[in-house]
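**Folding the chain**
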Amino acid sequence: MKLALALLTAASVILLAGCQSIKPQASAPPPAPTAGPSAAPIVGPQDCISPVPQGFTRIFIGTPAPGGQQSGTSYADPLDGTTAAKFDAILTSIADGQNPTLGAQSNIPPQNLIVCLGNGTFQTNGLYDLRFNGHIAGSTLGFSVEKGWKFHGRGISNTTLQLASFLPTKFVDTKGVQFAGGSNTVIGTHSGAASGVEVSDLTIDVNHDGLEPASGLPLNLEAIVLRSDQGGHWIHDVNVIGASGDVGVINVKFETFTVWIWGNNSGGPQVSSGSIVERVNVTQPGRPVASGSPPGGASDGIVVSNAVAEIRNNLVDGYAIGYGGFGMGPAVFHDNTTQNTQYGFNADSFDNNGVVVRSNQFIRPSSFGIVIGGGPALTFMNWTVDSNHIELSHDFSTALVLRGQVQNSTFINNTVTSSGNTSKQTAIISYPAATGSVNMNNAFQGNRVDGGLSFNFSADPNLKTDCLFNNRDLLGNPLPAFPDNSTQICP
C-alpha cells in the first residue's frame, strides 16, 4: 500500500526536517496502573464464564484480590498483572514453551490458552523486540500470542490494555540517511504456527501521545498484528486508539497497519484464510508530530495482506487510510465505515484478485474514496465494488481511482454524493500508474452520482472496452460526462 501515500511527499520533507532537530530525551515513566474491581459485577466473554473446553487452559489476570491466593482461576482471584513486567512475564512464560506453574495451574502448554483480563487498565511492553520465536535485540521485554490463544477483556468500557514502551529503532529516509525512531505492536504472534488467535472485548490504547512527547522521536505503533502461516483469526468487539505511523511520513516504506491480518505462507493468500475482523473501532490516531503531517502519520486502519479475510461492520475514523490490503486473495470488505480519512480504501501493491468491496460507507475522505490498481507487473482482476456510498466534501477529492491493471471488474449500484464544491471534485479517474499498465474490460452499471461531479478518462485509451449501462445522477437523469455505451445489462 506504500504507493498510495505518495501524496504525502511534501509532508515527509517537513517531518524529516523536524526529526533532524529533535534531541532524544529520557523516556518518562509510564502512568501507574489503574486496574481494579468495578463497583458492580460484570459478566465476561463466554470463554471466561463457561467450562474450559477440552484441550485448553484458562488463566485470569487482574488486580490481586485482598486475601486472595492469586490462583489465576477466576476473576475473583486473578494472577497479578498490575505492572507491565508482571503482565508480560505471565504470558511470555507460556508462549515461550516454558510450561510454567502459575497460581493453581501447572505445566501450562504454549498453545490453546484462554486469557481473561479483569476490569481496569493494564500496561504491557507489547511485542517489543520479539519476532518469530525470539528477541531480535536481546531484551527480556514484551509478550506474544501463540496458536489457539483467546485473548479477552471484560468489555471495551471495562478493560484497557495500554502500551508502556517502544523499541528504539534505526530507520532510513528516502535518501538513505539513517535516523532514530521507535516501533512497537501491542498484540502480535509468536510464530508462523500461531493461527486461530482471537482478540476481543477490550480497548487497546497504543498510547502514541503518552510515549512520543517523552522521547521526542517519531514512532510507529500498531495495535494487533496477527502474522501466521494459516489464518482462522477472529478480532471482534475491540476499540483501538492512539496508533501511529510517524516514520512512514518520512519514508512511506515504513507505513504502519493498525490492525493487520498477515498471511506468512509463500503458498499464496488462500493458505491463510478464514479470518474475520468485526465490530472493531479504530479511532483517535496519535497527534501529528510535525506541521503538515496528518493525525497518526502514515497509519492505516484495518489491512489484509497475503491472506483471505472478511472485514465487516467496523469503523475507522481519522487515520490516513481506512481499509485495504496487498497480495490479497478474494477478501471481502463489507458494511464498514470510514470517516475523516485521507483514503477510504486502498489496494495498490502486489496482486489482488477477486476482492469484494460491498455496502461500505466512505464519509468525507480528504483525498480519495476507493483506490485500486498499480503498475504493469501487478494484477487487479475480477473485483466487485458494489453498493458503496462515498460522500465527498473536500475540494479536489475523488470518489474512485483506477490506477492501472484493473480488469474484468464490476462497479455496480454505488452512490457518490457531495457536500462540498462539486466543480472541484471528481467521481472517477482512470489512468495508468506506469507505462504498460491498463484498465480494461470493466463494467460500470447502475451507479448514482451527483450530477455536478466530473469524470476523468482522458488518460485511459481503453474506456471503449468497458461496459457502461444505466449510470445516472441522483435524480435518475443520464450523465452526459459518463454516457451509456450499452443498451442492456453488462455481462
